[in-house]
């Protein structure tokens, strides 16, 4: 319970010491006798006094806040990453403040400034794609940061991700091994260049390695939303026939399954659909969704640990790639007739 | 872009004025000549100086922050409420900081204290059920607050919700009008007493009004998660046969549909399943989910508007109940043979 009407004066009066003695105890700044210290601590307890953290922030330059800036809390992928971040932050005595940006640059910069102003001790930052404005901001800021799924050659900021090249390679190899020849891909346009390039390259090279041709008509952009997956899948299937479709995120894949079903395709008999992320809904969808599991909890936890390490002045790795895994469910099937 | 190395001294020097003049301009505290003011503003622009908001908070007692404390960002229901809150907050020049509590009392109190410490101007607060610790906290706090789905007779804090009694009455009447006799309900245990009491009472009275008997074996508690909906539905259906099932939230209803399907029931032919909330996933599930639509965006927007009104010293209503509506989809069906 907090009683914000009680001031440091009340504590000093009850403890029978000066205000500066109370201040020394609170800020652990200068030596105070054990006896006086105990009287102050007792008085703080009895009055329910809480030192004004905002004023303390000015003195101590430590807020015990870690900010977490994410594009979309409505996407369970980010919510799962937040969970890991929260647990580690709390374990180390930090409180996590969430900032939801919808990936809009203005909001991102506003939240970055707010975190700097409120003297957050650290920051976990996610966005679709790093822009020059982000890079400029981080170049000038002194806040300890870790990126998730973002990589910048210009900044000395560590990042956590998965090996996107290998993950997409596995997904395409899996679909090919199931007998699929015409494999489409709907991928998010607004993600980190390196990730994007890796995912597209993995797709093309996996096809090539199996003697399949690359057809740009079955590869298209698609945002991280059910609606986008639904609309883009209808467009793609109206234009070309594919026997398998990979979407680089699960929410879009759920929209894709709905679209395919509405168009008269049976999933997986007529078309295999595969997602990426493995959000909790995917196991419960009908049919349940085959997906690449990203270790979302660990990604949030490791990124936050790296922020805390930096705050403590410890060295951290420049890049940590965590293990993914392919989770096979009902939305994909082996085409025995097709091989 | 922010350059936190630039201080008020640099601005004063460039503008050729004293530090206190710069401070007066920034805080709009005492009159400054137009000419000096312009020089200061130009210098701020040229140096990229940003006044330390934390220090300003001490002077102005205004942070332009509204805190939003919610139980579970992984539930799209809350994410949708946040969206409305964000839009209104931004429209009025406030920044929304999100705090995710998992409904744990310790975390809730920690975030409440943090918001008070950081001198948030206002607060939108959600939790399952108000506890005496919450009430004690709010009795002592001076932060402008609006509750969503929470009602306290002891506190003079406004709340936004829907009319839960009428919403459940409509849902049960709808299922009865479809020819269902044995109607189960899985309801969340940990919600506000008033809401809970209203929902249960509505269920019982709707059955009674149609001459149906209340059977406590087909009413059970179920948390706000897919997993809980899945497990509790299996328990209920293993124990008793029902021809319709209402769950008081959509994520649980999605788990229920999966459970029923796995047990060999066809949804809706063998059992009608109905949710409550109308999250975005519900329209895309197969079968798509009949649900009570809660105006989530509006709930967040109106609650935030009420916080901002209070900050401005305006009078606000004690309680606002927003309109819900029944959205009929594929998971429920008329039992023509059964009437």
UniProtKB/TrEMBL annotation, chains A, B:
SMART domains recorded: HTH_LACI
One GO MF term attached to the UniProt entry: DNA-binding transcription factor activity
Transmembrane segments: none
Key word Transcription regulation present: yes
Keyword terms: DNA-binding, Transcription, Transcription regulation
Gene3D superfamilies (alphabetical): 3.40.50.2300, lambda repressor-like DNA-binding domains
Recorded superkingdom: Bacteria
Organism: Calorimonas adulescens
Name the record gives this protein: LacI family transcriptional regulator
HTH lacI-type domain sequence ranges: 6-60
Pfam families the record matches: LacI, Peripla_BP_3
Matching SUPFAM superfamilies: lambda repressor-like DNA-binding domains, Periplasmic binding protein-like I
């Amino acid at each position: 319970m907090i009683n914000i009407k009680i001031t440091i004066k009340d504590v000093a009066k009850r403890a029978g010491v000066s205000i500066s003695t109370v201040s020394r105890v609170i800020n652990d700044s200068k030596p105070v006798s054990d006896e006086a210290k105990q009287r102050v601590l007792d008085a703080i307890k009895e009055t329910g006094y809480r030192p004004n953290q905002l004023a303390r922030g000015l003195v101590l330059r430590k807020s015990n806040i870690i900010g977490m800036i994410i594009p979309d809390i409505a996407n369970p992928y980010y919510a799962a990453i937040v969970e890991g971040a929260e647990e580690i932050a709390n374990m180390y005595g930090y409180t996590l403040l969430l900032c939801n940006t919808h990936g809009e640059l203005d909001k991102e910069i506003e939240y970055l400034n707010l975190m700097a102003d409120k003297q957050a001790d650290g920051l976990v930052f996610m966005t679709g794609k790093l822009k020059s404005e982000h890079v400029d901001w981080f170049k000038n800021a002194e806040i300890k940061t870790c990126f998730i799924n973002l990589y910048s050659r210009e900044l000395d900021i560590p990042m956590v991700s998965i090996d996107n090249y290998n993950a997409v390679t596995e997904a395409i190899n899996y679909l090919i091994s199931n007998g699929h020849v015409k494999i489409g891909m709907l991928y998010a346009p607004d993600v980190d260049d390196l990730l994007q390039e890796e995912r597209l390259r993995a797709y093309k090279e996996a096809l090539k390695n199996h003697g399949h041709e690359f057809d740009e008509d079955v590869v298209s952009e698609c945002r991280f939303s059910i609606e986008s997956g639904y609309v883009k899948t209808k467009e793609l299937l109206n234009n070309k026939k594919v026997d398998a479709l990979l979407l680089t995120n699960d929410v879009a894949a759920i929209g894709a399954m709905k679209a395919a079903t509405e168009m008269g395709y049976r999933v997986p008999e007529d078309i295999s659909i595969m997602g990426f992320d493995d959000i909790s809904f995917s196991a419960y969808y009908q049919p349940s969704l085959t997906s690449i599991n990203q270790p979302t909890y660990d990604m949030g936890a490791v990124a936050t640990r790296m922020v805390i390490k930096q705050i403590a002045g410890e060295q951290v790795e420049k890049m940590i790639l965590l293990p993914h895994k392919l989770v096979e469910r009902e939305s994909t099937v082996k085409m025995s007739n097709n091989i």
